[in-house]
Amino acid sequence: MKPLRPLPLVLCLLALCVLALPAAALAYGDKDWQPIDPAHLAMKEPVVEKDADAEVIFWEVRVSDEVDGYSLRSVLDHYVRIKIFNERGRESQSRVDILAPKIFGRETRIKDIAARTIKPDGSIVELKKEDIFQRDVIRASGIKVKAKTFSMPAVEPGAIIEYRWREERGDTLSNYVRLDFARDIPVQRVKYYIKPLSLPGFDYGMQARTFQAEMPPMQKEKNGFVSFTVTNVPAFREEPRMPPEYSVRPWMLIFYTEDRKPDPAKYWTEYGKLTYEANKSNLKVNDEVRAKAAEIVGDAQTPEQKLERLFEFCRTKIKNVYDDASGMSAEQREKVKTNKTPSDTLKRGVGTGRDIDLLFAALATAAGFEARVANLADREDVFFNPSFPDDLFIRTYNIAVRVGERWRFYDPASAYVPFGMLRWQEEGVTALLSDPKEPSFVTTPVSGPEKSLERRTGKFKLDADGTLEGDVRIEYTGHLAADRKELNDDDSPEEREETLRETFTSRMGGVEITDIKIENVAADDKPFAYSFHVRVPGYAQRTGKRLFIQPAFFQRGLGPLFPTAARRHDVYFHYPWSEEDTVEITLPEGFALDNPEAPAAFGAGPISRYEPKAAVSQDGRTLTYKRSFFFNPRNDSGMILFPATAYPQLKRYFDQVHQQDGHTISLKQAAAAAASSN
């Protein structure tokens, strides 16, 4: 029950210092390409999915843990061969991005890239080395990843393309490595060759576990490798609002462990006890901590008031060295001394996120509360299942404080999450509450939609030619604010403004945005806010003596939330939220409202409510449009998850919202005004 940590191991390094073995040989040896099967070149139709535009013939990966001088490295050699069936396949597969993500904070090195195209007539066109570039790729999760990228040469329908590369991860092992079975196109055969580390005195064995897939049989191969083969794997396609990728796609996890078949119940009981003991000294309360707690609590009377004051002190008075907004350089971080106790953190006023959380727990204990460290799952990555007896998916931690008969959860180290909330990734998840006798699993609460509010206001003037111009302010609270602060806090002012402009220019043609102000980017307790001046030529459509205007300005140009008729994956919302819009439009001189009614309100009981309202000033010159919406579909477990079978009903509801947001109001030009304008 001691999983190998994803860091250089003392045990391994000691063995290496003694042995200093040479590095293993290259997996592909002479690097010759595998022969082309004429049947594959002549193939006209896909095998796995009949409508596929392209299909992987084979995808082979050799994973080897090696000794390189006096250090370790994990090496993955990839080889992919793909058949192109039509123009869509050519377009989708011609450009290749080989990602180089950081693994446990370490850079991944991509090297030895080779690629070629085998045309239908059998002629071969090789990729030139100078046509390989490096760039940043934004993944669907929003994470920026470095990549080597290239375009396959001379690709056409009927051709076969193939490429290979080496991926090196230094100072680490293939421990908790995720091996995918699926790609964006179907795969006829994927095969992993795996060679675990083998050293005298290294008692850890490698284990494998599959997710969303049956465990393939293991075959022994030459040179210490074992292999796993999976055939006929359908394409994996991302969908809007789907569950975490690794909770729906098929994959295999490989990891080292001492225990071959641990019992889950026993594992978690022991793990919870060990966590309690490991943090016992870290929660130590001395006279200094006790005095500081009394000072911070002051005249607070209720448990909530006391905890909030302690929470705000830890968040605002202790600098988090790893926060993007801390302003600390890598060199400055290196010079920060390690805090061994909460008292050290208190004295120095600086620490890691863990130091800050543990200080909060110690202060809460000094103030008379019972506090524990709780390990939590992160549902942005994967949905946690306790049947897997390993702490890989439950390594996030927060502080649990008993208030009355309930445990409440706090994380002052998360700079932008308000008191009483957790990061959305940690709400509605399973948490293991440490205890010296009986650790237990509990579920963290989910914050209601009122906590995460998007409030938008706009005051505009509409011209007779349809141009709309005015001032806008948008505020975000709760999870919505935290998401935007994390997105913007390490960007330059110019990058932040460009992010805002792209939000509107992507859906409103000709929009002009000026006088941008972005507020509270790094403020922990205030709404994140945009304010700007906007001008949109042709916002209202002019037809003869009428103007047709969409009063829901903030929804203008947005497509439907769920654009496809069918759905493969469940529907997953990160958190409940609410929206409040107020739009005031001064009408052009000589125009009056022809049909000022608002679209109809509707709802889904306690789950959601959509309510638009329209009103006209007494002089008939100003149209005020208000729109409110909330979505709060939590089930008993706190998860915001709908099965794929419920997709048609869910789509109809949001399609109705989208349709109502597109409602237009007609303005009619008075006869006298029309004559004077001619």
Structure keywords:
alpha+beta; 678 residues; eight-stranded mixed beta sheet; globular; single chain
Write the SSE topology:
Blueprint: H1 10-19, H2 38-42, E1 54-68, E2 71-84, H3 87-94, E3 95-99, E4 108-118, E5 124-126, E6 133-138, E7 144-151, E8 160-170, E9 177-180, E10 187-195, E11 205-211, E12 218-220, E13 226-233, E14 251-257, H4 264-280, H5 287-297, H6 303-317, E15 319-320, H7 330-335, H8 342-348, E16 350-351, H9 353-366, E17 370-376, E18 396-403, E19 406-410, E20 430-433, E21 440-443, E22 453-462, E23 468-476, H10 478-488, H11 493-505, E24 512-519, E25 528-536, E26 541-543, E27 546-549, E28 571-572, E29 577-586, E30 591-593, E31 602-603, E32 608-616, E33 622-631, E34 641-642, H12 647-661, E35 665-669, H13 671-677
Parallel strand pairs: 1-10, 15-16, 22-29
Antiparallel strand pairs: 1-2, 2-8, 3-7, 4-5, 4-8, 6-7, 9-14, 10-13, 11-14, 12-13, 17-18, 17-20, 18-19, 20-21, 22-23, 23-25, 24-25, 26-27, 27-35, 28-34, 29-33, 30-35, 31-32, 32-33
Molecular structure report:
This protein is of the alpha+beta class. The protein is 21% helix and 34% strand. The protein has 13 helices and 35 strands. The strands form eight sheets. An eight-stranded mixed beta sheet has the order 5-4-8-2-1-10-13-12. An eight-stranded mixed beta sheet has the order 24-25-23-22-29-33-32-31. A five-stranded antiparallel beta sheet has the order 19-18-17-20-21, with helices on one face. A hairpin with a 5-residue loop joins strand 32 and strand 33. Helix 5 packs across helix 9 (353-366). It is globular and about 90 Å long. It starts with 9 loop residues before the first helix and ends with a helix. 32% of the residues are buried.
